[in-house]
């Protein structure tokens, strides 16, 4: 009985020790990551590349929620219903800000929704009407949920947005909580900016708890002109919704 207790106790201590080692490692990784995204992200210097490689290793090891993951991970998450939470009340204001910008700036336009997921934005936007609505996403399961919503003016495509090539131009291109999952978010946004029609807009939504997301937004602002921006807070969460036009900053 006593031995049994000791064994259990030992197991507990070993487990506890492992946990504390893990949390020490993960806190260090988080601190390192925070420094990288605050000061070095987007830099082209050799030392920045070195840090970037370290960050890649950290993000893979700790599978952080705001960093790139494979298509299989997205599939599994959609199959187990993880993203149904985006339908919750606390997300309404965030989606409404994006819809409001499109409706005000580009009514009845052609829209490309990059990383459209299960089409929450599309379904809420639909009553406003559109000339064309294309949604792309890496998850087959997410896109399947849109099969019945597709009409002659809308299409939903399974593809990797980082390699997707479009023959069409758009009035509005949306990156709603998706850029920080890309391996090369800046390169990808700039590539998509070339798909804008004259005076077209890019809408980027950024989750403010993510250092990576905030760093990406900061860098986009050095490449594209900011037309307008709003911060939505539904405590404890906040999102920044930014509207860009293609012309380079003066
Ligand atoms: C947080 S969800 C946001 C979904 C949707 N934009 C929304 O807000 O309702 C991120 C989405 O990005 C998609 N995604 C991630 N990496 C992608 C890639 N390389 N190409 C296309 N879609 C991608 C995921 O499958 C997922 O649907």
> How many extended strands?
7
The third-level CATH topology of the largest domain is Rossmann fold
Helical region count?
8
CA gyration radius, whole angstroms:
21 Å
Ligand kinds: S-adenosylmethionine
What form results from the Cα inertia axes? Answer: globular
Mean pLDDT over the full residue set: 88
H-E order: HHHHEHEHEEHEHEE
Secondary structure: helix percent: 40-55%
Main β-sheet, in a few words? 7 strands, mixed
Uncertain spans? 1-22
Measured distance between first and last alpha carbons = 77 Å
Quaternary state reads single chain
**What order do the strands of the largest sheet run in, or round the barrel if closed?**
3-2-1-4-5-7-6
Output the CATH homologous superfamily of the largest domain: Vaccinia Virus protein VP39
CATH class of the largest domain: Alpha Beta
Counted up, domains total 2
Strand content: 15-25%
Task: Write a brief structural summary.
The protein has 250 residues and is α/β, with parallel strands linked by helices. It folds into 2 domains: 2-64; 85-245, Rossmann fold (3-Layer(aba) Sandwich).
Keyword list:
250 residues; alpha/beta; Rossmann fold; 2 domains; 7-stranded mixed beta sheet; 22% strand; disordered N terminus; binds S-adenosylmethionine
